[in-house]
Amino acid sequence: MSTATAFTDTHVVIAPMLVALVTAILTLVTRRSGRTQRALSLLGGVAYLVAVARLGLAVLPDGVLVYQLSGWPAPFGITLVADALAAFMLGLAAVVSLAILVFSLSYVDDQGQRVSYHPLYHFMLTGVSGAFLTGDVFNLFVWFEVMLMPSYVFVVFYSGRRHTAAALQYTVLNLVGSALMLVAIGGLYATTGTLNMADIARRLAAPAEFGIDSGPVLGLAAVLFVVFALKAGIVPFQFWVPPAYRAAPAPVSAFLAGVTKKVGVYAIVRLYFTVFAAGTLEAGLGLPGLSGRSFLAFFGPVLFVMALASMVVGGVGAVSRDDLDDVFAYSSIGQVGFIVLPLAVVATVADPAIRVLGLVAALVYSLNHAVAKSLLFLVSGAVFEAVGTLKIPQLGGLTSRRPVLSGSFFVGALALVGIPPLSGFFGKLLVFDTGARAHAAGASLAWLALAGALVGAVFTIAYLSRAWSRAFWGEVSPAVDRAGRPVVLVAVVAALAALVVAIGVGFDPVYGAAEAAAEAALDREGYVEAVDPARFEPTDESSAHALGRLPGVAP
Amino acid sequence: MQPSRTALLALLVVPFLGAGLTPLVYRVLGERTAYYAAAVAAVCLGLVGSLYGTTGTVVVPWIPSYGVSLALYVDGLALLVGTLASGVGVLVFAYSGGYMHGEPGQAKYYATLLAFMGSMLGVAFAADLIALFVFWELTSVSSFLLIGHYQDADASLYAARKSMLVTVSGGLFMLVGFLVLHDAAGAALGEATFRLAGEGSMLANADAMVAELRTRGLLVPVLALVGLGAATKSAQVPFHIWLPNAMEAPTPVSAFLHSATMVKAGVYLVGRFRPLLFTDEWLVLFAALGLATMTVTAILAVAASDIKELLAYSTASHLGLIVAGFGLSGVLGAETGAFHILNHALFKAALFLVAGIVAHEAGTRAIDDLGGLYRDLPVTAAVTVVAALGMAGLPPFNGFYSKELLFHAAWEVATEAVAGGGSPLWWLIPAVAVFGSVFTFLYSIRFLMLFFGEKPEALGEVHSPPVAMTAPAALLGALALAVGLGGVTATAGVHLAPVEAFVGSVVDGTVVAAGDHGGHGNFSYHLPTKVTPYLLMSALTVGVGAAAYPSFDRIRDGVRAVRAVDPLRPNWYYDGTVHGLDRSAAIDIVQTGQLRTYVVALSLVTAALTLGAYAAAGTGLPALVAAGLEPALVVVLLVAVVGAVAVGAAPSHIAGVLTLSIVGFMVAIFYILASAPDLALTQLVVETLVLVIFLLVLDKLPAFYGSIPRLRALRDGLVALAVGATVTVTVLLSTAATPEDVIAAYFVENAPVPAEHGPVFVDAGGGGNIVNVILVDFRAFDTLGEISVVAMAALSVVTLVAMRERGEVR
After folding, report:
1. Do B414 and B372 sit in the same domain of this protein?
2. B492 is in which domain, residue-wise?
3. Nearest to B579, CA basis, from B162, B153, B300
4. Is the C or the N end of chain B the one with fewer CB within 10 Å?
């Protein structure tokens, strides 16, 4: 391949980001004309989907595509890396975000849309795309910030008392997270001498060659882990989730639960299973209950405890709440436990087949949760638009007044429960299969993982059947009797419900994509080789001399 | 003969297609949709009929990458369940045409029932464990929707949710069992497969499968997991609690789902897995489960006050009998299960239709308010005689023969075990079988007596039912009678060959190839011709039952009294758990709503995780290098420390902010001393701005902090120390590291314009200040992102101002 074609080809890597960024700017400058702004926003959402699809098609045969910003070679410049994992996550984000965007056009009030909704939405999408694509830890921080900044505004969008309180909590906790991320990234640079993720992996695999002491790196990885767990809303970092999801406008809650949460999950997969998995400790782990030499051996038990705690906290919370948004918010805490649980298994077993299976389980579950949970939050938005309340005691009898909306909720709820042949069934199936195979392979606590997953699943049935029978069945309440007809909103919701069915019935290609993504996530050599971080060979004396004056750098 | 691929696939497509078209059909036909649905069911029945005499597998690929296919398998057992699903379906749809007259939600009702029928056919014919599970859960979901048909009634909602929780949860446990089997098949068969029946399947390699499961120590877990699926679906103790509530559904649903078909899915599963997993463990587990259910629910049926409640407990009890039959070893066990599936479906579906007629025409389902109905409902009474006596197990009615088989099997198992040196506890099996059957006899007679004796005065006029309702009941009753009389004629040498051959083929599907000896396809039944121990067991049952019947009311009250004591109350554990959770405020302990507890938790967990990681890695603290620190630097840092302490002790907001800025300015000075003037400038600007903004805002807030309890101050102090320690250790370790090949070296070399390069510099940064070049060139992409953040921050302010007090009121 000539350099010229390589240059053109890899532009597809940055295309989704550019589309989102340009759309954000265009919708910002067209604020005076609401109609143009909305048209551009929708066009941008579609273009984003096209760009992602194009990228996916490019990744399919080529494996890993690498784009070096400004042509600076890795690891010195910033690298974007599109592999099957990134493509899978982008695809999830593109589909869900487009549905949410269409919903927003009809749902968010005109003034709000004109002021800032569209630019912020596409900035948020830019941040999400950047986080999925970047191959540089500091750049990851930047895209996290780009993703978070709009979400702060969105949580407080309605500017009521409760929204302000929720936004304060959300912002403070995430700012603490950002500070921790900076500490961790600064530390990682100081201890490994690089910011490029492939380069970190390469160096951690040969610490002696690069003068690296692995111990501090493990501690810094732990700090960074907190940040990602906070984004994913895993217990004990879930505190912000219920108030924020409840306060934000429904489409934003759908985005936060469906897409932003998955950025946290992605970051854990990418950094811990691709990058930090390279790290080993010569002496092994020295705490009771931990064994092994790999970095993952430390994070495995941590993930395990967090997954089980998430299922319990989410379940206990969701089953007792009387507000639909609250139920869905706690449900998100519980469901992320199902994503993390197979990751915990992957972190602790050695069998490569089970490792791939576990990651497939986490990814398929993420996809299901992205579609089904955003579906449910959009249902709650449509219910609010139609009825004017989300309080379960004031709802009731929705099936007889709004059958399509109710049916869509039912499909989403069944998907979360794991009823076949919907998307969620395969998530559950693969999570269980991971546990069962790990158990058969002799993993000591795999039975506990299975038991936890079963208990979590029973909780899911309990809270969704409760919401269904009280809000959608039951006597028609006065509020429901007066319900309006939000046609566009219901159409979007129904389309997502159809998607939930389609993913399940036509699961084979989805499985193939998830498997390719899982293999990409575990293929550290392939990742490092594709990015191909160079070693710096100083060419002149003066720079070596100048380097000597930098603090903390060995001359 | 191989089954027809087209017929099998059509069997699955037709009902779902029919369900999908129902809303349209309903617009055209209105209430006559019932007969459309009956026609769909009749087509299915015809398709099932066309499969008679065939056996084999048909495979449609579904998810090849995960090894899942839509494999369908035909044998006697599958045909039995398939026949029940479509045959009873035809009758129930026709019956619904009368029963559902004037009811709301009919389109949904027929669509769901048709979808259910399709799912049930899927369960019957699926040969792939995942495909089986798909249809299995779909039957649970359609059952949920049908139980909640009268959605205005709280009792329906309670019942629907309970059935969903119990059956779907049980299904998930079963799924785990399937996955364990799948994995074990990988070792036992050489290739992991989900194929249950047919060539190269688990059933075809039962011995290898059991051996593999035993080596893995997973035999009992698999039995328990699969058993949980079957027990929840078939309402076995202690999961029988959902079935009586399920009677909130319209009566045709109860007849169809909750007696003839859906609840049979569980026993079908037990029969299907019997040849695969039959072992001593199986015998103990399923015989105990079945007999316990049979007895407990028969006792509860005696205490029932509503005719459908009685039938529901009775159904659970007979399902227990079937499970016990499949649990016992030998051909006899298989025959018990297989024959009783058929017999129970016939008499119980008939009785449910009778109950529907009674409720519809007499206007009540309360047992105590009914009596003497034969005068008004003669045909129904005749059906009841046949069906109820069959249920009681009286000869020559159909239930007698299968119950006699159970007694026979129980007796054989016990004598064989005791003769082989087993404990005398084995005698419990026949003893419990008889004990439970006494109660079956009691409630069956009680049901029958609804039609005889005096008609209570309170009972008003009883209408005559429409033919659409009596005909299906009469047909079922006639079939039950025919099966019963077949035994009589068989005694005289004239066998009811089609029934015997059919049951024989079902038995073939459930016998253990190696363990069960003899008896392939040559099943026959007849009245006993000589006195045997098991005939005496039957006689004992009837004798004790008849003797006790006069005291029925006292027995019933006794059972009710026992049932009212809490741990013995059937719903005790379910209501306790579910209501407890529904109203639990436990989550408020975690989600306090207060930011300070969240931050404390976040800080402490972060500190613990980080310090834990350092400790796990065995990382020691680097030696502090105090030498080389300039005195000025030390002074600046000390002032910063003093400032930090003072923040904690500040008496007001203003004082706090001012002391905080001392820390900030000291950091700025530190930057200057460390030769970073640009950082220092940034820090100074930020510090100044923050101070000004703080002061402006504080002007609007109360000046006083309020005091906090000493204990909390202490706690906060400790948290702060933990965080400080974590950061300090992190900074010390980071700054002590000396990695090689630091990327900064590249920037140092490539940032400036190389001297020999001239004015063109494509491959170099081309700036005098390395920081600037990094920001705008090497890492310009970061800067782009940060500029976006700044733009958004400005936009946020605009939004906050513009949207103030505008939003929805939520």
Report:
1. yes
2. 278-591
3. B162
4. N
Verify that B373 and B349 share a domain, yes or no.
Answer: yes
Delimit the domains of chain A by residue range. 3-548
Separation in Å, CA B124 to CA B18, B25, B228, B343, B391 = 19, 28, 19, 18, 25
Task: Tell me the pLDDT tens digit for each residue of A298-316.
Answer: 999 999 999 999 999 999 9
- CA atoms within a 13 Å half-sphere pointing along the CA-CB vector of A110: 5
Tell me whether residue A43 is exposed, middle or buried, using C-beta atoms within 10 angstroms of its C-beta: 0 to 12, 13 to 18, 19 or more.
Answer: middle
Q: Does B137 touch chain A (CB under 8 A)?
A: yes
Q: How many residues does chain A have?
A: 555
The sign of the dihedral angle between the CA atoms of B675, B679, B680, B681 is positive
Note the pLDDT tens digit of each residue in B28-53.
999 999 999 999 999 999 999 999 99
Using DSSP, how many helices (H) and how many strands (E) does chain A show? 25, 2
Same domain? B145 vs B48: yes
User: What are the chain A neighbours of B613 within 8 Å (beta carbons)?
Assistant: 218-219, 221-222, 298
In a domain, B405, yes or no: yes
For the CA atoms of A427, A431, A432, A436, what is the dihedral angle to 10 degrees? 150
Residue labelled with tokens 């072992």: B279
What are A123's two structure tokens? Answer: 């900035």
- Between the alpha carbon of residue A357 and those of residues A303, A516, A526, the distances in Å are 17, 11, 19
Residues of A in contact with B180 (CB under 8 A): 436, 439-440
Alpha helices in A193-294 (DSSP H): 197-205, 214-232, 241-247, 250-255, 261-268
In a domain, B798, yes or no: no
Q: Is residue B230 part of a domain?
A: yes
Transcribe A83-100 into DSSP letters.
Answer: -HHHHHHHHHHHHHHHHH
Same domain, yes or no: B551 and B461: yes
Which residues does chain A have with pLDDT short of 50? 1-7, 544, 548-555
Residue of chain A minimizing CA distance to B216: A440
Q: How buried is B23 (Cβ within 10 angstroms: 0-12 exposed, 13-18 middle, 19+ buried)?
A: middle
Find out whether B319 and B293 touch, Cβ atoms under 8 Å.
yes
The angle formed by the CA atoms of residues A315, A320 and A326, to the nearest 5 degrees, is 80
Alpha-helical segments (H) within B100-202? 106-125, 129-147, 154-188
Inform me whether the pLDDT recorded for B748 exceeds 50: yes
| Contact criterion met (CB < 8 Å) for B795 and A199 | no
Distances in Å between the Cα of B329 and the Cα atoms of A147, B187, B406 are 64, 27, 11
In angstroms, the CA A419 to CA A402 distance is: 23
Q: Is the pLDDT of residue B806 over 70?
A: no
| Average pLDDT of every residue of chain B | 92
Mean pLDDT value of segment B172-201:
94
Q: Do A173 and B602 touch (CB under 8 A)?
A: yes
